[in-house]
Design goal:
Layout (H helix, E strand, L loop, with lengths): L4 H4 L9 H8 L9 H6 L3 E8 L6 E8 L6 E9 L2 H14 L4 H5 L3 H7 L15 H18 L11 E3 L4 E2 H11 L4 H8 L21 H20 L11 H15 L1 H6 L2 E9 L2 E8 L10 H13 L5 E4 L3
Helix pairs in contact: 2-4, 4-6, 4-7, 6-7, 8-10, 10-11, 11-13
Length: about 325
């Protein structure tokens, strides 16, 4: 086992809850069960080992299960790795004891971490060590699969992107579309993905991923933009023949994507005030409203963008009440 001494050098000790520290050095359920132990109590022994590629740790879990009720009567573990894995495995063993195997299967790594908190609002472990609680979660799945004699893939959640927070790709994509998210930071706020170890946010974290939040955001936004263009302005319909609502929608889409981000960086903005045939009348807001250059450079910039992105026949003028 590895406890406090292995963590002091890395300066992480104060980031752990008291419950985690206690279980690192004095786990309550550390040990093993044998076939003899199981026979004496007419129980079924499950003995599985699960390792983490992320940190090189491993947990061996021992369960004594009532074959009639499928209740986990006792649980013990051995851990070959860091103190965080020891504490997480110890709590997992405690949480699953007394539950049916199906109920134990529903215990997540987030529940393990929350059970280890001193204060419900303060994480029990530093974010970069959250993956150790994932390992405790995974070993339960392996144990239940072994007991039921089924392939562990039957219990695998599809397309998990953030294993720390158990956030799926579908949850992330739905949040981007339903809430209009355009930055990774907003995805993290809305879904919780990437707020623990951060490996799923972008390349360069402690664990390599097949796909990252930045990839999903880019892919979803590109698909949305392509779909918007198809809906807003079918290629077979000239801009001049579109209805006013469709003209406005196509203009707003181009402004949102290619103009407003640049203006917002300088504290400014732009609004569409009127559309007359192919002429767009705009009004500036923020810093742009009082900027002498708005009448020249900014207006020209907006005109060029709309001509390129929407229709070459478009003209842009400033709105005069």
């Amino acid at each position: 086992m590895m406890g406090k001494d292995a963590l002091i050098a890395s300066g992480l000790w104060e980031s752990y809850s008291n419950k985690v520290r206690e279980r690192m050095n004095n786990p309550r359920h550390f040990g093993t069960f044998s076939e003899d132990d199981a026979r004496k109590e007419n129980l079924t022994l499950v003995d599985v080992v699960h390792g983490s590629e992320a940190c090189g740790d491993a947990i061996e879990l021992f369960l004594l299960i009532d074959p009639k009720s499928h209740i986990i009567r006792k649980a013990r573990f051995k851990s070959f790795g860091c103190g965080t894995a020891i504490a997480a495995a110890d709590m997992m063993a405690e949480l699953c004891a007394g539950k049916s195997v199906d109920a134990a299967l529903k215990i997540t790594n987030l529940e393990v971490e929350r059970a280890l908190r001193d204060d419900p609002a303060v994480p029990a472990v530093p974010g970069q060590k959250m993956h150790c609680s994932v390992m405790a979660y995974d070993v339960i799945k392996k144990a239940v699969a072994d007991y039921k004699k089924v392939d562990i893939r039957e219990f695998e959640e599809k397309a998990i992107i953030c294993h720390c927070a158990r956030v799926t790709r579908k949850q992330i994509e739905d949040a981007i579309l339903s809430k209009g998210l355009t930055t990774v930071e907003r995805i993290m706020e809305e879904t919780g993905a990437g707020t623990y170890c951060g490996s799923c946010v972008r390349p360069g974290g402690h664990e390599e991923k097949n796909v990252y939040l930045v990839d999903i955001l880019d892919e979803v936004l590109k698909k949305k933009q392509a779909k918007d263009r198809e809906i807003i302005r079918p290629e077979c319909v000239p801009f001049a023949k579109l209805t006013i609502p469709l003209k406005l929608k196509s203009i707003e889409s181009a402004l949102d994507q290619h103009v407003r981000p640049s203006l917002a960086a300088d504290g400014g903005g732009v609004d569409v005030m009127d559309i007359r045939d192919n002429t767009i009348f705009i009004a500036y807001s923020g810093h742009c409203a009082g900027c002498a250059g708005a009448q020249q450079g900014t207006l020209g910039f907006i005109r060029e963008v709309l001509k390129e992105k929407v229709d070459p026949s478009i003209e842009v003028e400033t709105f005069k009440a």
